[in-house]
UniProtKB/TrEMBL annotation:
It comes from the Bacteria. The keyword Protease applies. The keyword Hydrolase applies. This is BREX system Lon protease-like protein BrxL. Residues 543-680 form the Lon proteolytic domain. GO terms for biological process: proteolysis. Residues 12-143 form the BREX system Lon protease-like BrxL N-terminal domain. One of its GO terms (molecular function) is ATP-dependent peptidase activity. The gene is brxL. Pfam families: BrxL_ATPase, BrxL_N, Lon_C. Keywords: Hydrolase, Protease.
Length: 682
């Protein structure tokens, strides 16, 4: 394996805390332990860039794992060693229970098929997680022959126990210090490599979504859903990478195990772990009728009741599951929460507590190609750093810099803020490190999209209170309002309900003798300078003429259209995109003029709207010869509103009832009237 620049930088910045991830795969499957256990061993002996040292260390890890893990059929051999030598050291998952008959704790060691191993109260008090599902540890298992001779004696005892996780208290400081040596792009790649993935094998979208997967590890009381195709590694992060995460496989989830055992007051999984992940969520159900209600209450406030006592916990809840169909079909037949259990599936109050819906369909299926052979942080270093970040918040970074749009409710704002905080903690583990606008905007867009996906499903279920889903934001005091869509709802060649960025407009060309109605998107940007320039190579002559006329009208009527902004002090660049067989964009002067004014004003146009109409140099609006065809074409492309010259009003009396009930036609008298009706009122 050839080391790249990032490998060398990482080895220097995180000396002693990196490991080659292909080594981990070399051991995977050979020993009955999770990945983070293997990496714990590799981190001890293979944290080096010297190939010889790595191979020597790997051999030592192999020897220790061979000597300390119990394979099927070796149970009696280990028991015999404990008897002969007095004790034996092994790596095992340790779970404990209270035996009321003897008023003592007993440990279960599944690989040895032992269910009654004695353990001192001190170990249980120090490691309460062994009472709520257990954890992997290096244990010294002792054997007392005199107790074995007693009737009902329990000769095996845990005499030493060491959790397999990092004990260094200042690890977050070390990670933050090492992060300073890398650019943001390099650090993102480093995080992906640390969980075993090769960034170069993933699309930018898949990289972003994978980083979003990590947010529950760094953000307390964070609720996330990920549904998507099978085989994309949804549960891998929660099962293999961190000892602070617990995976609950499909089946009955007991209230006692999840929250609190009323019989003995024992705290449940959400108190003991940073992340509780429900795998195969479609098969999960609670043992009590009010289980989902308790979970809803916990997801809302981080609290649940035990009798009169209210208990706080910080465990994040993650629900992962599979679609049996693709995402487009799932949206046609229902909504994207369809695979959830029946008691959650159509409950909009439950959905409202979900901070982010992660698009699992944007992550490729797990294959050899997506695994990395390069250096990444040792899993327990990464997991410990993540766990320490939970006590911090980056919500303050947004204050005064990010302004969220009016469509967001209080819960939406809270969800977006938590997601942004989590993403910024991942990118900037040092809370003192300044966050540039570009990275802040990246986090805000991802957060808005993943929360809007929740809102869109609530809207589909039919609740009027979730009708407005047009999420938007602005960066800075005079930041332009930008809208964030969920990509699975968007089609490249159809008119979406969201406002386009300022300077962009959907235009309908009425066509002529040789071509039919055509849909176009006209995109205008402005900067210092002068003139109007078309970016398309060899643009159609009719479109060139429409742009020339629109530019002249803007100069002549600047005061009326854009107030005190002088269009002659700005250079406009225009780009045309055609989505039908019609390419000429003839008679599109009004849409071009509206786009020019929108760019200069920095204001978006209404969502779901298409603009129709030609102009002449004198500013008069040209009549549309086939308005019914134009409106019907607009409906077929998803338009909710068509902005049309008032001269077409009489001809549209013959519009069919079906089209008239689905598309609103707004009439304008002149350019100023058209612009006023076209602008989005945020």
């Amino acid at each position: 394996m050839e080391l790249d620049d990032l490998d060398h930088k990482a080895a220097e910045a995180f000396a002693g805390h990196v490991v080659r991830k292909d080594l981990v795969r070399r051991f995977r499957g050979q020993f009955p332990v999770p990945t983070y256990v293997v990496e714990f061993m590799l981190g001890r002996y293979c944290a080096s860039t010297d190939p010889a040292e790595i191979e020597d260390g790997a051999e030592m890890v192999r020897e220790q794992l061979t000597a300390r893990t119990v394979r099927a059929g070796e149970e009696e051999l280990f028991k015999a060693r404990a008897r002969e030598k007095g004790s034996v050291r092994l790596i095992e998952i340790v779970t404990a229970r209270l035996d009321a008959k003897t008023d003592s704790y007993l440990v279960t060691l599944p690989s040895l098929r032992l269910t009654d191993v004695r353990i001192g109260d001190r170990f249980v008090r120090e490691h309460e997680r062994m009472l709520t599902g257990g954890f992997y540890a290096e244990i010294d298992l002792g054997y007392d022959a005199t107790i074995a001779q007693e009737k009902g004696g329990r000769p095996f005892e845990v005499v030493g126990l060491r959790e397999i996780q990092l004990s260094t208290r200042d690890i977050l400081d070390r990670i933050a210090e090492g992060r300073q040596a890398l650019s943001t792009a390099e650090w993102k790649d480093m995080l992906l490599r640390s969980v075993g993935l090769e960034p170069a094998a993933l699309t930018p979208r898949a990289r972003d979504v994978t980083l979003l997967r990590m947010v529950p590890f760094v953000e307390s009381n964070y609720n996330m859903v990920e549904l998507g195709p099978r085989g994309t590694g949804k549960s891998h992060l929660f099962q293999q990478v961190s000892p602070y995460a617990h995976l609950v496989s499909g089946g009955k989830a007991t209230v006692a195990r999840m929250f609190v055992n009323m019989a003995n007051g024992q705290r449940g999984l959400v108190c003991q772990y940073d992340v509780v992940c429900f795998d195969e969520v479609s098969g999960v159900s609670f043992d009590q009728k009010d289980g989902v209600n308790i979970m809803k209450g916990y997801m809302e406030s981080g609290e649940f009741s035990r009798g009169r006592e209210s208990i706080r916990a910080e465990g994040s809840i993650v629900l992962v599951g599979n679609f049996d169909v693709d995402v487009q079909h799932q949206q046609r037949v229902g909504h994207l929460f369809g695979p959830l259990p029946p008691e959650m599936r159509n409950d909009t109050a439950f959905m409202d507590r979900i901070h982010a819906y992660l698009p699992g369909w944007d992550i490729p299926k797990v294959s050899r190609a997506v695994f990395t052979d390069h250096f990444g942080l040792v899993s327990d270093v990464l997991a410990e750093g993540f766990s320490r970040l939970r006590s911090q918040s980056r919500a303050g970074v947004m204050q005064g810099r990010v302004h969220l749009g009016g469509a967001l409710s209080g819960r939406d704002t809270n969800a977006v803020t938590k997601t942004v905080s989590g993403l910024l903690k991942l990118l900037y583990p040092d809370s003192e490190q300044p966050v540039p606008d570009d990275d802040l905007e990246w986090a805000v867009r991802l957060a808005l999209e993943s929360r809007r996906r929740v809102k869109e499903q609530q809207k589909r279920i039919g609740s009027a209170e979730f009708r407005n889903t047009q999420f938007s934001y602005g960066i800075g005091l005079d930041g332009v309002e930008k809208f964030v869509a969920t990509p699975e709802l968007q089609s490249e060649d159809s008119i979406g309900a969201d406002p386009l960025p300022h300077g962009q407009v959907w235009a309908l060309g009425p066509g002529g003798q040789d071509e039919g109605v055509g849909l176009y998107r006209i995109e205008v940007s402005e900067g210092p300078g002068g003139g109007v320039r078309i970016l398309n190579q060899s643009p159609p002559a009719p479109f060139r003429e429409s742009v020339r006329i629109a530019g002249q009208n803007l100069y002549a009527r600047g005061q009326e259209l854009v107030g005190d902004r002088n269009p002659r002090e700005h250079e406009f660049t225009v780009q045309l995109r055609a989505f039908d067989a019609s390419k000429s964009a003839d008679h599109t002067g009004m849409p071009v003029l509206v786009a020019l004014a929108s760019a200069l004003l920095g204001r978006s146009l209404r969502g779901g709207m298409a603009v129709v109409g030609g102009l002449n140099l004198g500013g008069s609006v040209e009549p549309v010869h086939n308005p019914i065809d134009v409106v019907e074409h607009a409906m077929s492309k998803g338009a909710a509103t068509v902005l049309m010259p008032v001269s077409a009003r009489r001809a549209l009396v013959d519009l069919s009832d079906d089209v008239a009930t689905k598309v609103q036609v707004l009439f304008y008298a002149d350019a100023a009237d058209a612009l006023r009706k076209a602008l989005h009122e945020g």
